[in-house]
Amino acid sequence: MVWQVIHIVELLCWAIIAVSAGYVVFFSLVSLFCKKTATRVANNEVYPPIDFLVIYPAYQEDAVIRRSVEAFLQQEYSHEHYRLVVVSDHMQPTTNQWLSSQPLTLMQPTFEKSSKAKALQYAMVECAHWKTENKNRKVVILDADNVVRPDFLSQLNAVCHHTNGVIQCHRTAKNTDNDIAALDGISEEINNTIFRRAHNQIGLSSALIGSGMCFDFDWFKEHVGHLSTAVEDRELEALIMRENIYIHYAEDIYVFDEKVSSDDNFQRQRLRWMTGQVQTFFSMIPYLPQAIRKGNINYIDKTLQQMLIPRSILVILLSVLSVIMTVLVPTWSIKWWVLFVCFAIALFIAIPSRLRSRTLLQRLDKFPMLAWKMIRNIGSIDKKNKDFIHTTHNK
Question: CA 124 to CA 174: how far, in whole Å?
C-alpha cells in the first residue's frame, strides 16, 4: 500500500515536470523542422520613414549609458524622424551634464521608489503631445546597456512596413568576458529559439524580452499607465495578448545586451524574473476562461508559459530524480531518463550552432552553482512584492 502511494506521487511529479520539459522539446523541434519565417526586406527598396520615439530608461546606469547613447547617435536614419529620450533616474551630475550636451531629450524625474515602468510612464506623459507630421509613429524601448548598429532604425522602419502589431528585436550578448556572462548569453539565445523564433514559425506570438521592443505610439501611450510591477515586459505581454495583437520577432535586427558577469547579479536578476513569472501567472488567470471561450491561443500559450519550471531547475530536478529512481526502483527510472535525455537534446538543438563549441562544455562547470542560486530564490519569491530589483553593470 505504501509503495502504491509512493508510485502515484512519483507519477504525478513526473507528469508535472514533463509538461515543462515537453514544452521546451516541442518548440525546439519546431525550430529544427519548420521553415524560418523571418521577414525578408529587399535591400534596394525604399520605405517611407516612420517617426520613432526611442526611450532609454536609465536607473543608476552611469557605467553604460554613455557608450549606448554614443552608438545610437551613429544612426543612418534621418534625425528628423526620430527623437531620442534618456530618462535619467538617480544618475551622477557628470553623467547628466554629458547627456545634456548631446542631441537628445534628457528627463530627470525623482521617484520615491524607482522602476523601469515608472520611467516609461514619465517619458510618455512628457511626450504625450509629441507633434510630428507623420501619423505613423512608433515607440522603441531600449535598456541603458543596449548597443545597436547604425542601421538599426532603418531596418526597423522596413520591418514595420511589412508587419502589423508589436515587434521584438533579436537581443543578444555583447559580452562573453567570463563563464557566467557566456552562459547567460546562451540562455538568452535558447529563449530566442523557443519563445520567439519557433513560436512565430507556427503562427504564434513571440515573447517580449524587456528591450529592443517596438510598439505603436498611441497604443503604448494608452497602455503604459497599467504597468505596476518590476517585470513590465510580462505585463505588456498580457495586455497585448488580451487584445490578441501579434508580436513579430525580427530575428535579423540585433540589439546587443550586457550579460550579468557575477553570481550575485545573476541571482538578483533571476529572482526578479521568477517573482515576475509568479505575479504574471496570478494576474493572467482571471482572464483565461474568456480567452478559452474566444479561442485566443496566444493568451492561453502565454498563461501556460508562466507555469513552466525554469530550465536550470528542470535540469537539476531531472538529473537528481533520475538517479534517485534508478537506486530505488530501476524500472521506474526509465521514463525519467527518457525525459532527461529528450530535454537535454532539446536544449542542445535550441543553442545556435555558432555557440556550440568545446568552450561551452568547459563553461558548464559553473552551471550547478547558478542552478543552486535559482533554487535558493524560490524561498524569496513574494507575489505581492513589486519593488524594482536593480542589476548593476561593469564599467
Answer: 29
The residue among 370 and 3 whose pLDDT is bigger is 3
Largest CA distance in the chain: 77
pTM score, whole prediction: 0.88
Helices (H), the chain: 2-33, 65-72, 93-100, 116-126, 152-160, 179-191, 198-201, 217-223, 232-242, 263-284, 288-294, 297-305, 311-328, 330-350, 358-363, 367-377
Q: Give the span between the Cα atoms of 375 and 336, in whole angstroms.
A: 20
Distance CA 356, CA 344 (A): 14
Helices (H), 34-115: 65-72, 93-100
Q: 84 to each of 88, 201, 318, 362, 375, how far by Cα in Å?
A: 13, 33, 47, 41, 40
- C-alpha distance from residue 24 to each of 29, 35, 193, 208, 296 (Å): 9, 18, 10, 17, 21
Residues 6 or more apart in contact with residue 310 via CB below 8 angstroms: 270, 274, 374
The backbone torsions φ and ψ at residue 324, rounded to the nearest 5 degrees and listed phi first, read -60, -45
For residue 329, what pLDDT is reported?
A: 87
Q: What is the pLDDT of residue 309?
A: 87
Let me know how long the chain is: 395
Cell of 54: 526611442
| Residues facing residue 361 across a β-bridge | none
- Helix axis angle for 263-284 and 232-242, nearest 10°, is 30
* Per-residue model confidence as pLDDT tens digits over 246-255: 999 999 999 9
